[in-house]
Write a structure and sequence with these properties.
The structure is a homodimer. By secondary structure, chain A is an alpha+beta fold. The first copy, chain A, has one domain: 2-Layer Sandwich (Beta-Lactamase). The first copy, chain A, contains 2 helices and 5 strands, in the order H-E-E-H-E-E-E. A 5-stranded antiparallel beta sheet of chain A has the order 2-1-5-4-3, with helices on both faces. Chain A starts with a helix and ends in a 13-residue tail after the last strand. Chains A, B: One of its GO terms (molecular function) is dynein intermediate chain binding. Chains A, B: This is Dynein light chain roadblock.
Chain lengths: 109, 109
């Protein structure tokens, strides 16, 4: 059962309006970006690097236990957090400011 | 400044006694397990797969922005959650039951 384009748009809209969310990229099962709030170059870079990473994470998880599977990946970095949700047909990538406590928002380029 | 063996033992003890923690593996900078609560085979598998994954995550992060760096990796799976903390000298891997509620264990060496 295919996900409707409107559902994808809704997801993009909902996520990108969240506080702290800096970027949203949605890839299809071929790893191609079908929605993105980033410019084309960054979209491509994020798409390739993060989908490869998600694939390796899934492969590690199923190698350790073939009954298991990846459901979610969080990559915390010095500057932000990259959250990766592998869906049935899509890979959802959300870049957000680290969810600390009550830190003041610092302007970021 | 080298971390004392007793500090590593303390970290292992502290983490493995936490509610929901199923396993703790500590690797040195060469990727060799120096402490583990798992049997040797699983320790080796976790060590190799998760340290490779952490390396790829770090590489993705620094490729996207060379001023950035990986600080923490969480791999959520159907069965449990694998948390990876790259320290200065060590890679800390904690396998725990998924944390659904409020507290989120963030292991620190």
């Amino acid at each position: 059962m295919a996900v409707q384009a409107s559902e994808i748009d809704d997801t993009l809209k909902r996520l990108s309006s969240r506080k702290g969310v800096k970027a949203v990229v949605i890839l299809n099962s071929e790893g191609q970006a079908i929605r993105s709030t980033l410019d084309p170059d960054l979209t491509k870079q994020y798409g390739q690097l993060i989908s490869n990473l998600a694939q390796q994470a899934r492969s590690a998880v199923t190698t350790l236990d073939e009954q298991n599977d990846l459901t979610f990946l969080r990559v915390r970095t010095k500057k932000h957090e990259i959250m990766v949700a592998p869906d049935r047909e899509y890979l959802l990538i959300v870049v957000q400011n680290p969810v600390e406590t009550t830190q003041q928002a610092t302007p970021q380029a």
